[in-house]
Amino acid sequence: MNAASASAPLKARDAQPALEDLLPPLTSRNDVDLQLYAFLAIIMRDFVQSWYGKITTDETFVPEILRIIAHCTTALEQRFRKLDLESLLLDEIPELLDKHATARRMASRSAMQPPVDADAREIYHSIFPLPFLSPVPRLGDDGTAVELQRQNEATYRQLLVQAVLAILLPTEDLENPCLTALVEQILSELIIGNVIAGKASQPWLLYEAICISARSLGEQEARTKARLVTGTDQPSPSSSDLDQDTAKSPKWTVQGVFVLIVHLGILFFNAVRFMAGILADSISLPPRTALHLDEEAADCFHDDKRRLLSTDTNLGRAKVPVLSFKLWSCLGNLIELEQRKPWLGGFMSLLQTAAINGPWRIAGLDGPLDRLLSRHIQALFDSSHLSPILRSLRGALFPNNSLGTSTLTPPQSEEELRALRRRAAAAILGLLPASVARVYFGRRLWRLGALFDPSEDVGSSSAAADEQDGDERILDELEGLLDVVGDEYCNKHLMYSALELLLVRLMPELSEKGVVELWEERLG
Questions:
Q1: Which residue range(s) make up the domain with 71?
Q2: Tell me: the pLDDT tens digits for 55-92?
Q3: Would you call 128 exposed, middle or buried from its count of C-beta atoms within 10 A (0-12, 13-18, 19+)?
Q4: Is residue 40 situated within a structural domain?
Q5: Are residues 107 and 151 in the same domain?
Q6: Same domain, 104 and 192
């Protein structure tokens, strides 16, 4: 009994305190707080403590900064709960991407011919203007225009962060200019300037992201196939060799075509039955137009309706069916569907219109299919997915939790950048079915001779040369599609526009008042 009572204080002393007992909560989820504090620890260590520790040994400065950041994150989380992420991420931001792709192609495919000089960046900036990104930097300038544009961009970032802090922070925090200035620099330079406008706008980094994503999807698909064939995650050599032999010698026969038609009929019947069952279940789902308020929001609504209308980012915005989102037209624009296969684009538009406005309106607003799609989309936006995303992002931005050299190094020349873009195009081609890629980019689905004469040697040297030449042409076409993100200056327009849209949806006050008005309103 005495030994147990003596070991109790030791266990209590050795027990590690919880994170929420040591630091102010940033969000309502502890796993997200852990990842956010890992980010903040790196930033504080390398950008604040590195110089502040040389001035004084005071340890209250960093906790004050964390307290201000905690006020910002908790206020943002409350506004995020009222935000319609579905419409923002699948309708409004794809609309920006669609405009960016159109402007980028118009600028790079100018009708101007030498000796008339037409700078692609100036054309793009005139179509997609952002005042703080002017003057337009040109390759032949002496650097004055580039430096002036960077100064204007930095000034805009500071004004944007000042407006955000004026809305989110309590009055007592705004009255401390030293802390707010430091937090302003962290947000404007390290987060917006370095990550969003810096790394996320680099074409080479976007190409690397495409290669990494394609490789990850390919490995996942290979593991899935291996699990279905062998019951393990490792693909068997015999199955891979069989796939290679099948891919090398696709021979079509009348019997094979008949069996294929039968399989397609069975697949179509099962798909129709599956969709009918899903649509029957989707009738019981709640309507998308219903406004779900928790008890706290309901109390605020009854106490002060005007305050809720000023802070709720969803009220006053009309919802549209999921099939009417700009995401679908944006994807069609990115792959140039109307230019390459106009009949396919028209057919899909006809199906879309029939599903939304046709009989029974199954895909209309709050229709059965609309509710079903919305439910699956909302599942993708679950907050449980945020922690792994932040962990992966931290590993990419700060290898080994430090500002060490990343494994992703930028290309040193235009030739290396073109080679990287070629690899990204090859990665995308590897994800596409060979027959789909050949038909869409203008090649034949199969050799007609092999259909009527199975004895024809499809592995001849001429066929192999034609196959390789066709793949090279497809890669050229894919490179042209990837050129929409091939310029850093143009990509900045897209990144800043998306950031502005997100902040305005979270804080509608930004579109109603200027920075000076917001600060005068808070501080008098």
A1: 23-82
A2: 777 777 788 888 888 998 999 999 998 888 999 999 99
A3: buried
A4: yes
A5: yes
A6: yes
Domain total in the chain:
2
Does some domain include residue 419? no
Tell me the pLDDT tens digit for each residue of 184-207.
988 898 889 988 888 899 999 999
User: Distance (Å, rounded) from C-alpha 185 to C-alpha 194?
Assistant: 11
- The model's confidence at residue 7, banded by pLDDT at 50, 70 and 90, is low
Residue 308 buriedness (CB in 10 A; 0-12 / 13-18 / 19+)? middle
What is 368-385 written as a DSSP string? HHHHHHHHHHHHHT-GGG
Is residue 144 located within the same domain as residue 57? Answer: no
Same domain, 117 and 147: yes
Distance CA 54, CA 52 (A): 5
d(CA 397, CA 416) in angstroms, rounded, equals 22
Query: Does 314 fall in a domain?
Result: no
Q: What CA–CA distance (Å, rounded) separates 16 from 4?
A: 20
Q: At residue 476, does pLDDT exceed 80? A: yes
Q: Is residue 69 part of a domain?
A: yes
CB atoms closer than 10 angstroms to residue 444: 11
Whose tokens are 């950048």? That residue is 417
**226, 243 Cβ separation under 8 angstroms:** no
